[in-house]
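Before surveying the methods themselves, we first show a specimen of the format, giving the amino acid sequence and backbone structure tokens:

:::
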Amino acid sequence: MTTNSVPVDDADAARLLLSETTGLLLDFDGPVCSVFSGFPAPVVAGQLRETLAQGGHNRLPTEVQETDDPFDVFRYAASLGVKEARYVEAAMRAHEVEAMATAEPTIASHDLIRAWSKTGRSLAIVSNNSVASISSYLHLHELTDAVDVISARTDSDPDLLKPNPYLVEIAVSKLNLHATQCIFIGDSVADITAGLRSEVFPIGYANKDGKLDSLSRAGARMMITELQTIAALAAASRGEDQTP
């Protein structure tokens, strides 16, 4: 699939889609905020490697030693054993919570969350980040009451994370909706894959160069490059009949 086959920043297509949508699912890191904007992910990855070293794992594969992604270190820890997975996940969770104080909100994300909530429809955050960090962020920005469900990491098993549809399916179930009533905005191939596997309508948020192509190839059924249009459409729909 190429980007030419998917609507990109198409306000009319988005308006029609939103009029038929009951549940909005949002990935967290990207569509809501930049989690590690003030606490760089490479620093976190390095600290997780130190956590492994303290546990006696000093010789790491080259790809784990050089990665900037904390999740790569977490997945490697899980391959070592349950104990390693638990203590590395706990360390990552602590770093994520610390990062919330400096996480930079995505432009229009808070507007979208508040506007959607005011329509009376359901909203869930679906993320590989920890529930603790997301709860902290929502509290910090006074968004807690606008989010109905947080479906995110509570376990030290990385196999439950996206692209596994598990977290998406949990969110849909907790919202008491059918997957076909929901859209899912995500900025990664894992998001799009999880959305397709759970039968929600996946929207690719192309917030960086190259993502229009990669997310559309992954199967995104609509593409956006900013959230302002979606937020404005949600705000404009307040008071309309939202009965599914």
